[in-house]
């Protein structure tokens, strides 16, 4: 198992390198000028100097290697020294990837935006999983019952209707018509006492529900299918013949076995949560990572776009790996060696 | 629908394949959701193609005096903030959305099938091509799509004109970022088929390699390609509308359903129906296509053969 994990890790490195190269090359090839937004009165020589100072004079490969060095060596060290407060290898002089738009280090921007995304998006994923598993179990247990039919239909709808429509629809119903929930997420809101907590929950409700509906419908379809597959296995018949209670069969024997593939699907879904958040954050004006990405794409802020896209890629590769390893750990029948 | 009609033509040349197609059709018919989905999808296609000839208002005609109207006899879906007729816009947007979905699907199917066939059939290509597939699967697609469109939009617009340029760009980026699942499925199918006797027979009969691939392998993997095709339309339409919704898809002059939704979202309090109709259109299309895909999959699943 350890051997397999190590092998997968070894393979993840070239994958990430290639992806980083693709991202870098794509942004580099594009017709885009970081000085484009500066006033037109700046003479061309000065403009050229600004470009040089941004490091755009070097050949492509050099810039790529510099960026790699910056991303994999300097920035992690920066973060480390920030967390520990210690001075590691003269951290004050070390270069930081800076946003062209705000001139602040990209990592700081990301650290600022991360909590909102994690709260809203992470919460929706957790809520989605918590709703999906019971629904999947009941649907599979009472296959073709009204509950199952309804559940399958609703999950099909949740799976098909795009989040930008459900989001807007919920805003129309609950904010515009009923005034139950605010339609815009207030990021400056701090939870200090009971009423502010209630407000926080109210403003999180709509975005969390929109994403949770989508996640629930995907996961519950999977739980149902996986449960059904296990319910037809021989060991279930044996357990029934032995006189084990149906509840025990369902919740102990079958559920444990069916959750193995479900756990991997959940792990695989984590990175898509982040990219799915791009749209939901845009609808509810949550200023999280997705919104940062959109604004920097629109503003041509290449360092931020590169860093964020690459972080998304790292997440995907990482969770793919986790999913595969988890599958092997949970299911002793799987042998990778 | 070019890709969907091609397999039928090929299937009809072989008598025993036709019976298999009939069998599949029979099993597809048993799936109630699939039939309803197919009917709804067909209705949407017909409405979008014939609709503009019946409801003849020009979707771009500005009638500023009748702006922000509710539904009326003249404007069944109401009008927008510039007095443009919403029904006409939804119909025109549907044409664009559906054609983007289908062309992007065709492109991704083509890529996926080629990669899948090659890596399944030719041994030394298998490793590199599958690594490529893994690599594409690890790309953060939505961010990348946004980046590509943002960066290359102006260039293509300058070359091909505003509508064609963005159409080519969006179809191309959706196509090249969604072929991976098809490739994997086709590869799996090819791997299981290529060791069967009829391939061996064809080989010993001296059939050329490309003929084996085109005549013997391709018809046999066509059924799983069909499933990918239906699901591919759904993802392509959703992706396109997501891009348009983020303001990076089609411009307002050539609105797709996603763009109409995006434009309507700013007038939520005045005319909520501007969001409702395009959103419903997207949802219904995707829902019907997904049901069709489910029915196809059930029909093809050997475990589900009637007892």
From TrEMBL, chain A:
The chain crosses the membrane at residues 9-27, 118-138, 150-174, 194-214, 259-284, 304-330. One of its GO terms (cellular component) is plasma membrane. InterPro entries: BPD_transp_1_N, MetI-like, MetI-like_sf. Keywords: Cell membrane, Membrane, Transmembrane, Transmembrane helix, Transport. It is found in: Cell membrane. It comes from the Bacteria. It is a multi-pass membrane protein. PROSITE patterns: ABC_TM1 (PS50928). Residues 114-323 form the ABC transmembrane type-1 domain. GO terms for biological process: transmembrane transport. Belongs to the binding-protein-dependent transport system permease family. This is ABC transporter substrate-binding protein. It comes from Thalassospira mesophila.
From TrEMBL, chain B:
Keywords: Cell membrane, Membrane, Transmembrane, Transmembrane helix, Transport. It is a multi-pass membrane protein. Its main location: membrane. The chain crosses the membrane at residues 33-54, 96-122, 134-152, 164-186, 225-250, 275-293. Residues 94-293 form the ABC transmembrane type-1 domain. GO terms for biological process: transmembrane transport. GO terms for cellular component: plasma membrane. InterPro entries: BP-dependent_transpt_permease, MetI-like, MetI-like_sf, OppC_N. It comes from the Bacteria. The keyword Membrane applies. It is found in: Cell membrane. Belongs to the binding-protein-dependent transport system permease family. This is Peptide ABC transporter. It comes from Thalassospira mesophila.
């Amino acid at each position: 198992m350890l051997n397999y994990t190590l092998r997968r890790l070894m393979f993840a490195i070239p994958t990430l390198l290639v992806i980083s190269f693709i991202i870098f090359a794509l942004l580099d090839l594009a017709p885009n000028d970081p000085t484009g937004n500066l006033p037109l009165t700046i003479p061309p020589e000065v403009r050229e100097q600004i470009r040089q100072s941004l490091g755009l004079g070097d050949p492509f490969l050099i810039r790529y290697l510099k960026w790699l060095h910056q991303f994999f060596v300097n920035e992690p060290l920066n973060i480390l020294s920030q967390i520990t407060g210690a001075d590691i290898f003269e951290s004050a002089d070390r270069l930081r990837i800076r946003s062209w738009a705000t001139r602040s280090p990209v990592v700081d921007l990301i650290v600022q935006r991360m909590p909102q995304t994690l709260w809203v998006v992470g919460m929706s994923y957790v809520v989605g999983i918590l709703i999906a598993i019971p629904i999947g179990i009941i649907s599979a247990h009472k296959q073709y019952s009204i509950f199952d039919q309804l559940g399958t239909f609703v999950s099909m709808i949740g799976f098909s209707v795009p989040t930008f429509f459900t989001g807007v629809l919920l805003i129309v119903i609950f904010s515009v018509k009923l005034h139950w929930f605010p339609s815009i997420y207030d990021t400056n809101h701090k939870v200090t006492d009971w009423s502010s907590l209630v407000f926080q929950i109210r403003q999180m409700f709509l975005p969390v529900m929109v994403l949770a509906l989508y996640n629930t419908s995907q996961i519950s379809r999977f739980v149902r299918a996986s449960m059904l597959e296990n319910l037809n296995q021989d060991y279930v018949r044996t357990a029934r013949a032995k006189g084990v209670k149906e509840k025990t069969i369902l919740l102990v024997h079958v559920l444990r076995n069916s959750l193995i593939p479900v756990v991997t699907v959940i792990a695989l879904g984590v990175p898509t949560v982040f990219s799915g958040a791009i749209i939901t954050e845009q609808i509810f004006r949550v200023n999280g990572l997705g919104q940062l990405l959109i604004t920097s794409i629109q503003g041509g802020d290449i360092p931020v776009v590169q860093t964020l896209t690459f972080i998304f890629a790292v997440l995907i590769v990482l969770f793919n790996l986790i999913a595969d390893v988890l599958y092997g750990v949970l299911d002793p029948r799987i042998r990778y060696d | 629908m070019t890709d969907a009609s091609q397999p039928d033509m090929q299937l009809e040349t072989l008598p025993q394949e036709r019976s298999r197609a009939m069998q599949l059709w029979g099993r597809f018919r048993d799936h109630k959701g699939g039939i309803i989905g197919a009917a709804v999808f067909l209705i949407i296609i017909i409405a979008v193609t014939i609709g503009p000839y019946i409801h003849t208002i020009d979707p771009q005609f500005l009638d500023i005096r009748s702006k922000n109207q509710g539904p009326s006899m003249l404007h069944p879906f109401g009008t927008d903030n510039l007095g443009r007729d919403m029904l006409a816009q939804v119909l025109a947007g549907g044409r664009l959305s559906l054609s983007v979905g289908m062309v992007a699907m065709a492109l991704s199917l083509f890529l996926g099938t080629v990669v899948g066939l090659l890596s399944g059939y030719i041994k030394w290509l298998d490793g590199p091509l599958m690594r490529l597939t893994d690599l594409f699967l690890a790309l953060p697609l939505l961010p990348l799509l946004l980046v590509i469109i943002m960066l290359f939009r102006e260039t293509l617009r300058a070359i091909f004109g505003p509508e064609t340029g963005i159409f080519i760009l969006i179809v191309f980026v959706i196509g090249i970022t969604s072929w991976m699942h098809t490739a994997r499925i086709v590869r799996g199918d090819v791997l299981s088929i290529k060791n069967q006797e009829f391939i061996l027979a064809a080989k010993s009969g001296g059939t050329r390699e490309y003929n084996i691939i085109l005549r013997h392998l391709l018809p046999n993997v066509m059924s799983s390609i069909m499933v990918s095709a239906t699901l591919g339309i759904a993802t392509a339409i959703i992706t396109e509308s997501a891009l348009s919704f983020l303001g990076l898809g089609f411009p307002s002059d050539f609105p797709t359903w996603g763009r109409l939704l995006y434009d309507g979202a700013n007038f939520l309090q005045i005319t909520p129906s501007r969001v409702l109709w395009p959103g419903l259109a997207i949802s219904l299309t995707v829902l019907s296509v997904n049901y069709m895909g489910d029915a196809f999959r059930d029909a093809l699943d050997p475990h589900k053969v009637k007892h």
